[in-house]
Design a protein that fits this description.
Number of domains: 3
Structural class: alpha+beta
CATH topology of the largest domain: Pseudouridine synthase
Distance between the termini: 65 Å
CATH class of the largest domain: Alpha Beta
Number of strands: 16
Helix content: 10-25%
Low-confidence stretches: 264-271
CATH superfamily of the largest domain: Pseudouridine synthase
Radius of gyration: 23 Å
Strand content: 25-35%
Length: 316
Amino acid sequence: MSYYKPLQYVVPSEEEGFLLKTILQKRLGVSRKLLSRVKLTEQGIMVNGERKYISVKVSEGDLIEVRMELEESEDIMPQEMPLDIIYEDDELLILAKKAGMIVHPTHGHYVNTIANGVVHYWKQKGETVRFRPIHRLDQETSGVLAIAKNAFVHQQISEQMIVHEVKKEYLALVHGVVEGDNGTIDAPIDRDPEQPHVRIVIESGYRAVTHYTVEERYADMTLVRLRLETGRTHQIRVHMKYLGHPLLGDKMYGPEAEALSTDSGQAASDQSLIDRQALHAAKLGFVHPRTKEWIQFEAPLPEDMSQAIEQVKEQL
């Protein structure tokens, strides 16, 4: 049986007599779900090289190790494709996702996804890893995408997201000139009762908070930087529409959506400066689950958004 690199912890004097379970959960950060898996594994939980029950008490100097079995994404077809890799180590793979790419295979989309390319990449390197995206980006959204290489790393960063410790910043081109230099949109979001695939601001919805800062103003267009405090589906797109400044090229929440439902829809679409929602995941930061150090990654503004800006500047 093969394992990922083990998690290790040496018991200090002040933790003499602690239950092994306490050390695993409080010091190593192993979740209840992961703990239930590794304790059934042959070498899942070891103390000084010996398999132990989590009910034993530990002593000063004990070396505690947690091992997770190697896993593969057997249901994802490997497919060679170019990947823009920002960073990689034994625990993480950070990519700059291109607009138009789906992250994970879904019904009707079994190939040509980020997952297909990553699985192929790992197989070529001889790595046995299961594809675990830590977060999702819409198909049309470009930018930083983080992928965990094991269940522990995925769990740890997911928990950081829950308590809002992960830094996520986006850049967006929006319709109109945003007046204030910065602001916060605190407006609840839920499904539209009449169109379940669409989200709307509604009093009975889930709390959603988006902070924004104006980066640059143009003629009837603004580049804004957005920071998410919560992570609701389509949050930025819904909140910017609510503010009166929907994203350029947004066929679900922008003027493009209204135009497409009329006879002038095609003409309005052709006049768009960009053929997708102008949203880019520019920055992602979090505490590395193994090193416990803060790490941060950035992806530059993509060419289509830069070209839209240049087109507007030329019109001035």
